[in-house]
Each structure stands twice: as C-alpha cells, then as structure tokens.
Amino acid sequence: MMLHPSYTDLMKVVNSDVEIGEEPVVNSRYSIVLATAKRARQIIGGEEPLIDNTLNKKPFSIAVEELYNSKVKIVGEEEESEEDSEQNVEENVKEDMETEEA
Asked: Are the CB atoms for 44 and 61 separated by under 8 Å?
C-alpha cells in the first residue's frame, strides 16, 4: 500500500516546529503510524474531522491528511496536559476498583 504523502513527508511536517538541537517529535515511521492510527480511532469514535471533503475517505486517510496539513499535533506523553493525566489516573483507579470487586 502506498501512502501519500509519504512517511518521510509526514515526518518533516510533524517535526517542522522543532528547534535545532531539540529532540524531534517523531523519530520513525512507526511513531507516525501509531499517531495517525490513534487519530483515526478518534474519528471512528465520533470526533469531527478537521479537514473538508471527507466524503468517501477512510478514517486513516483523513488522519493522514490532518497531520500533513498541520490540523492536529502529535505530543509526547510528557507533554500531555495535567488534566489528561489526571483523567487517565482516575480511569485506571476506577478499572482497578472494578477488578477487585469482581
């Protein structure tokens, strides 16, 4: 399967805001695919696409186009907001409590 734009092009766009000497946002095609798949799952889950003309496009293709057009930003786990981190902790605690009750 050919991906257009290419993985290399996507990596250049995603890393374009990185200052010289800083760690790139993504270092591999694997990272790009994971981030794109995560966004595609969000779209499947009901989030609105951030690009126009999505008719007959699959969620992964929409996610690739969003990344390429800088409509979404990939952030590392350490850059997630505290609110997101707190929510994840709350969800994990809730899951642990449900498991213990069973």
From this structure: no
Residues 57, 66: Cα–Cα separation, whole Å: 12
Task: Please provide the DSSP assignment of 41-89 as one string.
Answer: HHHHTTPPPSSS--TT--HHHHHHHHHHTTSS----GGGS-HHHHHHHH
At residue 2, the pLDDT reads 53
Q: How many CB atoms lie within 10 A of CB 37?
A: 13
Question: Distance between alpha carbon 96 and the CA centroid of its chain, in Å?
Answer: 26
pLDDT(32) > 50:
yes
Residues 6+ apart with CB under 8 A from 28: none
Please, which residues have CB within 8 angstroms of residue 59's CB and are 6 or more apart in sequence? 40, 41, 43, 44
